[in-house]
Amino acid sequence: MRKLLIAALLCQSTFTLADIVVSEPYARAVPHGQLNSAAFMTLKNSGNKAVDLISASSPAAEHVELHTHSNVDGVMQMRQIDKVTIEANHTTILKPGGHHVMLIGLQQELNEGDSIPMTFTFSDGTTQEKQLPIKFVMPMNMDHSKHTEQSTEHKHTH
């Protein structure tokens, strides 16, 4: 009985260690033959210190990278970043036109209504596995088809 109580307490403490909650994750549906897509979500940090999303992975893509968009001299540029910081007691939204997760070299079609698995890794040592539904997202004037495997900076013009 005592071992069972200790095991229950350990399980309970494991759940309270995760200060980050990944909610409303989804990946963009893409037309047949499209090799790249993006994923979006809300990241809520209920802890008292900042935590970084440092990587993501999915068997649905050869490469999964963290990206952002920025306006440089009137030109929208997309580039890979090392992390997305979620400040203490704050919510960070990954959305089209901002921070997002790029799926490069798709290994399957991303059709609306399907879902893909994705694992998120955080700087506090935690990981979270989620099933991301595939949703239609109104395209921005960004062409993700120009991504390459070795490229670390992606520039796109409107």
Structural overview:
The structure is a single chain. With 158 residues, this protein is mainly beta. Helix content is 10%, strand content 50%. It contains 1 helix and 11 strands, in the order H-E-E-E-E-E-E-E-E-E-E-E. It has one helix spanning 2-17, and strands spanning 20-28, 36-45, 51-57, 61-72, 75-80, 84-86, 90-94, 100-106, 115-122, 127-135, 153-155. Strands 1, 2, 3, 4, 5, 6, 7, 8, 9, 10 and 11 form an 11-stranded mixed beta sheet that branches. Strand 9 (115-122) and strand 10 (127-135) form a beta hairpin. It is globular. 28% of the residues are buried. Mean pLDDT is 84; it is low at 11-16 and 142-158.
| Uncertain spans | 11-16, 142-158
Portion of residues in beta strands equals: over 45%
Radius of gyration: 17 Å
Q: What structural category arises from helix and sheet content?
A: mainly beta
User: Judging from the principal axes of the Cα atoms, what is the shape?
Assistant: globular
Describe the protein's topology.
Elements: H1 2-17, E1 20-28, E2 36-45, E3 51-57, E4 61-72, E5 75-80, E6 84-86, E7 90-94, E8 100-106, E9 115-122, E10 127-135, E11 153-155
Parallel strand pairs: 1-10
Antiparallel strand pairs: 1-2, 2-7, 2-8, 3-6, 3-9, 4-5, 4-8, 5-11, 9-10
Q: Which features characterize this protein?
A:
11-stranded mixed beta sheet; mainly beta; 158 residues; 11 strands; 1 helix
Give a brief description:
It contains 1 helix and 11 strands; from the N terminus they run αβββββββββββ. It is mainly beta.
